[in-house]
Amino acid sequence: MCATNNSAPVLLYYNPCFFQEWGMVVMKYLGTAKTLEDNIQNSSLKLSTKEKGLICQDVSNAIRLFHNNKYVFGNLRATNIVITNSLDSRRYQAQLIDFDRVGQEDIDKYPNLNPHIDWPDGVGGGMLMKKDHDLIWLERLGRKLEFLSEVEML
Q1: Which end of the chain is more exposed for a tag (fewer CB within 10 A), N or C?
Q2: Cβ–Cβ under 8 Å, residues 41 and 79
Q3: Distance of CA 59 to the CA centre of its chain
Q4: What's the predicted TM-score (pTM) here?
């Protein structure tokens, strides 16, 4: 679903019953691409305000695709967004990775979660997944990138 519009690396292999309750996912190798969090923490990628807006739009489009298909991504942190250099569009592009929290809204429930992560209100082990949780993550991402553009202007 996401790879067809370049919102995620191409899925090469999937086995839902690889070992006990674990599945296996193999996606296209992304080379030297780093997560958005790595780029923010290390300032290794200098993005213009326009590029940051395009990155936010990429993530927003991916989440819209999930929501239109009645799914919730569930863990839209900067560590689960990878920045690639798209040769086709000649710009940096955001792609989602780490799909282990994806589920259907109001049907699937969150598994036990890392208590050291600032999850949105209403997110917790055994609680129903909601599209609104993704929107909170998306808002946080936008604020994080806005903050970066203010820091770069100083």
Answers
A1: C
A2: no
A3: 7
A4: 0.84
